[in-house]
Amino acid sequence: MRPHAKRLSDVIPAPVLVVPEPDVTFTVTPDALARAEAGESPAGGGISLELSGPEELGAEGYRLEITASGVTLRAAQRAGLFWGVQTLRQLAAGDGVLPGGVIEDRPRFAYRGAMLDLARHFFTVDEIKAHLDLLVQFKINHLHLHLTDDQGWRLEIPGWPRLTEIGGGPGTGCDGAGPGFLTLADYADVVAYAAERFVTVVPEIDMPGHVNAALVAYPELTADGQPVAPRTDAEVGYSSLAAGKEETYAFVETVIKTLADATPGPYLHLGGDECLSMPAEDYRAFLSRVLPLPGKYGKRAIGWHEIAAAGLPEGTVVQYWRPEQQDAGVDAAVTAGRAVIMSPADRVYLDMKYDADTRLGLDWAGLVPVRRAYDWDPALRLPGVTEDALLGVAAPLWSETLRSVADVQFLTFPRLPAVAEVGWTPQAGRDWESFRERVALFAPRWEAAGVSYFRSPEIWAA
Ligand code: TNX
Hints:
Layout: E1 17-27, H1 30-37, E2 47-50, E3 62-67, E4 70-74, H2 78-92, E5 97-105, E6 111-117, H3 125-136, E7 142-146, E8 148-149, E9 152-153, H4 162-167, H5 184-196, E10 200-207, H6 212-217, H7 246-262, E11 267-271, H8 280-290, H9 293-296, E12 300-304, E13 317-320, H10 330-335, E14 339-342, H11 345-348, H12 370-374, E15 390-397, H13 405-412, H14 415-424, H15 432-440, H16 442-449
Parallel strand pairs: 2-4, 6-7, 6-15, 7-10, 10-11, 11-12, 12-13, 13-14, 14-15
Antiparallel strand pairs: 1-5, 3-4, 3-5, 8-9
Helix pairs in contact: 3-5
Bound molecules: ligand TNX.
C-alpha cells in the first residue's frame, strides 16, 4: 500500500466522530503515554487528563482534542480515559506524532468480549496477561475464560483437589502439550490485572455437558458411579453430570460459590452447550436448579444459547453461537426480557480457519476470512433479536488445535480487531475498505512487537 501521512481517523475501532485539523500535529513521548495509561494526571509531556464529562458520552466514552500545544483527554469515568489513551497510542505509533483535531467516541455495545479456552490447552498467567495487553488496544472490555471441559479442569476448587490434580492434564492431543491449572491466587492475579485495564473477567465452568475431566476426577459424579477414562481427543457432546443425583448439585453449588467469591465482575458463565448425551427433560431440570445459583451469590448467569430451552431467571444472558440454529428460542428469551451476546461461529469464531490452507483451526462453521468477521450487523443476525436486546459481541477462541501463544496470535490477528470494531463502532460508521486500510497499518507494529499475525491476502498484497 502507498504510504500516507498519518490521519486522525486511522484508529481501530473507528471512532464515532472524527474532526481533523489539517496541518496541526503534536508529538508525544512513550513515557507520557504510559503515565496517561496509568491514569496519572497531569501525565506530563503536554497530555492532560480530565475526569469531568462529557456525561453524554457514557461510562466508556471520551473526548480527545489534539492541538499544536498539547493533548486534552476528557471522560466521565476512568474507563473512558483508558480507552482514549488506546486511541492516542494507535495515533502515536511509530514516531509519536499525533495528527491534530477532535475525536468524540463511545461504544455501540457495553460488552465487547474475547474468549480464551484454557481447557483444551492451558495458558499460563503470564501468557493470559500478554494476550490481554494486545486485546485492550482494540477496546475489548470482557475476557471470558473457558476454564473447564472434557479434556481439562483449569481452576482450583477448594475441597475438590482431584479436579486439578487429574483435570490439569494435557488437554487435546497426546503430545503432552498444554497441562496446568490456575490456583485461586493465579486467578485473582489475572482478575486484578484485567481490572487495572478496565476489563471484566467472565469465568466459565461448562455444565452439565463438557464435564469429562470432572467425572474422571470424581467418579461419584457419574450417573452410575462407575469410573470413566480421561480423554484428549476433540469429540464433543458425550459427557454430562447426573441430573438426578443430589451429589451433582452439592458439587455445582460449591463450584459456583467459589467462582462468585473469586470474581468481582457481575457474570458467571455456566456453559450449557452441546448436552447431547442427556435427555432434554434432564437438561431442563438441571438448569432450573442451577441457573438461579449465580443470582443467589450476587451474580448474573450467562449460558450458550442452548439454555434458551429452559426457563431463564431474570438477568440471565444468552450467548448465541451455532450458525444453523437460527430459531433456538433466543427470540423468545428476548421477548421475556433476556439480553443476548452475539457470537455466531460463522463470523466470529477465531478458531475457524481463515482459508482452506490455514494450518491451524477448525472448519465446522465454514471458513472465516477477515472480511467475513467484519461485514455483518449483530442487530440483523437473528429475527426478533434487535439492537436493544444486545448486550454485545464476543469472539471465542477454542484451543483444540493450539499449542502456543504464537498460535493464539495467528488466529486472533487481524480478525479480533474486526470483531472489536463490530462491537464498538456504530454500523453506519463501518466500512470494509476503510477497515482494510486501517488494519494494514498494524503490520509493522505487530512485527516490532513479535506478534505472529496472519498476513491475510485480503489486506496485504502477497
Ligand atoms: C463448539 S462453541 C463448542 C466447543 C468447541 C468449538 C470448536 C461451543 C459453545 N461449543 O466445545 O471447542 O465448537 O469450534
